[in-house]
Write a structure and sequence with these properties.
With about 325 residues, the chain is of the alpha/beta class. It has one domain: NADP-dependent oxidoreductase domain (TIM Barrel, Alpha-Beta Barrel). Helices cover about 40% and strands about 15% of the residues. It has helices at about 35-45, 60-70, 100-115, 135-145, 160-170, 190-195, 235-255, 260-275, 285-295, 305-310, 325-330, and strands at about 5-10, 15, 20, 50-55, 80-85, 85-90, 90-95, 120-125, 150-155, 170-175, 200-205. It has a seven-stranded parallel β-sheet with strand order 3-4-5-8-9-10-11, with helices on one face. A two-stranded antiparallel ribbon has the order 1-2. The protein starts with a strand and ends in a 5-residue tail after the last helix.
């Protein structure tokens, strides 16, 4: 099958209905093999999964460089999204930096690593409290005028900053964590996106793997794996969340598909229900999981299945914060 496309925002950006999060090809979820990662990227293009998500801080820098190598001769077949907004020193993220002059420098460096003359979708990775959002949007607007960037996005921005940015330069997409087990966008952010005509790009749409049914306790993951420090994978939280996620497994078994495919189908259907174009970007570095994720786009959940999932994984039934306290401090809510 070839994936259909969906519209993100009102400025003309169209992307594959399911994207590919590339972060894990460089960090966070155990070691990666470059040859396997590149093969996965090439298979994604064959399947029509051409919305590729990266960032300067992934690695840092190595993920963008990987895409640059993998996409040689294939650049015109993909939509590249990347992100700026962190200060990186000695190979580590040490804070935010969205000063206009830094945005320009970061974009030039990203263009070089990606081996391209333009970025399709440029996100501010996290809101910088030291820089007015109007200045950020204005700086990206200038890059759009110069042809170096096509569309503007925000990541984990709150309602006030989404409004402020959109008033200066149209925001095409907001990227935030959203999935069956993380519903924080529903009360305020999703209605605002519908009002302003902005698309939603959920990262971690499979609950960092929890909704795939193939999970272990935090301490059973190797050193360097993000999930070792994920509060929802720890202790009593883990036990409660396995119980809540059982409904995903049950529906998957009844349908003869994988639990992760049910979780993605739920997200895609939510896009229809909310009147907001939703394009999840499940991350993987393996062809097998990529093919499963793409196949989810052909699943259609009925009203009873949607209601059962909504109830089983309602916000009050998920145990533990989605991030550590330090990471939550960088979310603009």
């Amino acid at each position: 099958m070839t994936l259909k496309t969906r519209k993100l925002g009102s400025q003309g950006l169209r992307v594959s209905a399911v994207g590919l999060g590339c972060m894990g090809m460089s960090q966070s979820y155990g070691p990666a093999d470059e040859a396997e990662s590149i093969a996965t990227l090439h298979r994604a293009i064959e399947l029509g999964c051409t919305f590729l998500d990266t960032a300067e801080v992934y690695g840092p820098y190595t993920n963008e460089a990987l895409l640059g190598r993998a996409l040689k001769g294939k650049r015109d077949h993909v939509t590249i999204a990347t992100k700026f907004g962190f200060r990186i020193e000695n190979g580590k993220q040490v804070g935010t930096d969205s000063r206009p002059e830094h945005i320009s420098e970061a974009v030039e460096a990203s263009l070089g690593r990606l081996a391209t003359d333009h970025i399709d979708l440029l996100y501010q990775h996290r809101v910088d409290p030291a820089v007015p959002m109007e200045d950020v949007a204005g700086a990206v607007g200038k890059l759009v005028e110069q042809g170096k960037v096509r569309f503007f996005g925000l990541s984990e921005a709150g309602a006030a900053n989404i409004r402020r940015a959109h008033a200066v330069h149209p925001v095409s997409a907001v990227q935030s964590e959203y999935s069956l087990w993380e519903r924080n966008l529903e009360p305020e952010i999703i209605p605002l996106l519908r009002q302003l005509g902005i698309g939603l790009v959920p990262f971690s749409p499979l609950g960092r793997g929890f909704l795939t049914g193939e999970v272990k306790r935090a301490e059973d993951y190797p050193e360097g794996d993000y999930r070792r420090n994920d509060p929802r994978y720890q202790g009593e939280n883990y036990d409660a969340n396995v119980e809540a996620a059982a409904k995903v497994r049950d529906i998957a078994t009844a349908r003869g598909v994988k639990p992760g495919q049910i979780a993605l189908a739920w997200l895609l259907e939510k896009g229809n229900g909310f009147g907001v174009d939703i394009v999840p970007i499940p991350g993987t570095k393996r062809i097998r999981y990529l093919e499963e994720n793409v196949a989810a786009a052909s699943l259609k959940l009925d009203a009873a299945e949607m209601a059962a999932l909504d109830d089983a994984l309602a916000p009050g039934k998920i145990s533990g914060p989605r991030y550590t306290e330090r990471a939550m401090a960088m979310v603009d809510r």
